[in-house]
Design a protein that fits this description.
Blueprint lengths: L1 H15 L7 H11 L5 H13 L4 H44 L3 H29 L3 H16 L4 H14 L3
Helix pairs in contact: 1-4, 3-4
Length: 172
């Protein structure tokens, strides 16, 4: 029963998370309130791991959340549930786009979706900020890294590794 529920919930997320993996985060926060599969604090760890590992963040989070909830089978089922809607939609849209590629209505629809995607990403960012900044040390660390990223254009890998090392050393 849990595997069916995992598939259903992640299928819904995959169906409505338009715009990439970061858009799945608000849906995952919703899961923390509906089920006892994982806590908000565990979700923060899942996001950190998912962003630090190769592959799409949404797929990584679905796999991690499914594994956290129901082991290897849960990871597989959650991942399939998340990816299946995109697979079906991409196949259907590719057929439609060929036919209506130059349609003004289609262009307007795509433009209308953009603000929703931005709003979802901003909401997820704010939630992550609130849950992650639990002390003055963490706030200072976040500000320092923000300034470094802003002024010193380096590879994201550099900042991920730096944050991981400093987090362990400073016990953040």
């Amino acid at each position: 029963m849990i595997l069916l529920l995992l598939f259903y919930e992640f299928f819904k997320i995959g169906l409505f998370a338009i715009g990439g993996g970061a858009v799945t985060i608000p849906f995952l926060f919703d899961l923390t309130e509906k089920y006892d599969w994982f806590s908000k604090e565990q979700l923060i760890d899942m996001i950190a791991v998912s962003q630090s590992t190769p592959g799409p963040i949404g797929v990584n989070m679905a796999t991690f959340a499914g594994f956290q909830t129901a082991g290897i089978g849960g990871g597989i089922i959650a991942t399939i549930g998340l990816v299946l809607p995109s697979l079906v939609i991409v196949i259907l849209i590719s057929k439609i786009l060929r036919k209506y590629m130059n349609s003004p209505l289609l262009s307007e629809i795509m433009l209308a979706i953009r603000p929703v995607v931005i709003a979802l990403i901003l909401f997820a960012s704010f939630e992550l900020f609130v849950l992650s900044i639990t002390s003055w040390y963490r706030a200072g660390f976040a500000v320092l890294l923000f300034v470094m990223v802003w002024f010193y254009k380096r590879s994201p890998i550099f900042y991920i590794l730096l944050s991981g090392v400093l987090g362990v050393v400073l016990k953040l």
